Amino acid sequence: MRLRAVLRPLAACAAAVLSATGACSCTDGRAQEHAAPPADARLDHRCGQRGASGACALYDVSMIELIARPERFDGRAVRVIGFVNLEFEGNAIYNSEEDWRRSISRNGLWITPPDSMARPRRMPPQYMLVEGTFNAAHTGHMGMWSGAIEQVTRFEPWRLRGDRPIPEEAPPPPR
């Protein structure tokens, strides 16, 4: 019976964390629930750029975060890196190249390319850094994707580490 008395508050606390409606801490073996911070405070660590008012203007997120928790980022400006393929009725950014190769569209987001790319030359599928506004309700052509990135403001290839300049090492200090 003592074990149930300890586990019950812990289970309630875990449920509060998982539902994101509250938070909890555990001290001396007892779970204590407390109010969750406001949604913006929970996202503060994801802020990649602040506006003049100090509010977050752009969130650095992963594809996984956008797909798993779309309500958190709906209507917000986001920066994400993923595998992009542009084709008729299939403009999308995927979590990985493998997801694109296997046509796992739920692991991707519909993408509205910038106006400057309205009629792009055939761009090879590649990893790209994309900034735009996330729309959780827009799921692209035939509702196949898990959301959309619209009003794209940045759209550039993401190079391999080996393609980036490597900072020179400082010479060892004299002895």
Description:
The chain has helices at residues 2-19, 39-43, 63-68, 70-73, 97-101, and strands at 22-27, 30-35, 47-50, 56-60, 77-85, 92-94, 108-111, 126-135, 148-157. It has 175 residues and is an alpha+beta fold. The chain folds into 2 domains: 2-36, no CATH class; 40-159, Beta Barrel (OB fold (Dihydrolipoamide Acetyltransferase, E2P)), CATH 2.40.50. It has a 5-stranded mixed β-barrel with strand order 5-6-7-9-8. A two-stranded antiparallel ribbon has the order 1-2. It is globular. The model is unreliable at 14-22 (pLDDT under 50).
Structure at a glance:
The protein has helices spanning 2-19, 39-43, 63-68, 70-73, 97-101, and strands at 22-27, 30-35, 47-50, 56-60, 77-85, 92-94, 108-111, 126-135, 148-157. The chain has 175 residues and is α+β, with helices and mostly antiparallel strands.
Order of helices and strands: HEEHEEHHEEHEEE
Radius of gyration: 21 Å
CATH topology group of the largest domain: OB fold (Dihydrolipoamide Acetyltransferase, E2P)
Number of helical elements: 5
Read across the widest sheet, the strand sequence of neighbours is 5-6-7-9-8
- Count the E strands: 9
Number of domains: 2
Q: What's the CATH first level of the largest domain?
A: Mainly Beta
Mean pLDDT: 78
Estimate the global geometry from the Cα principal axes: globular
Poorly predicted sequence stretches spanning 5 or more consecutive residues: 14-22
Secondary-structure map:
Elements: H1 2-19, E1 22-27, E2 30-35, H2 39-43, E3 47-50, E4 56-60, H3 63-68, H4 70-73, E5 77-85, E6 92-94, H5 97-101, E7 108-111, E8 126-135, E9 148-157
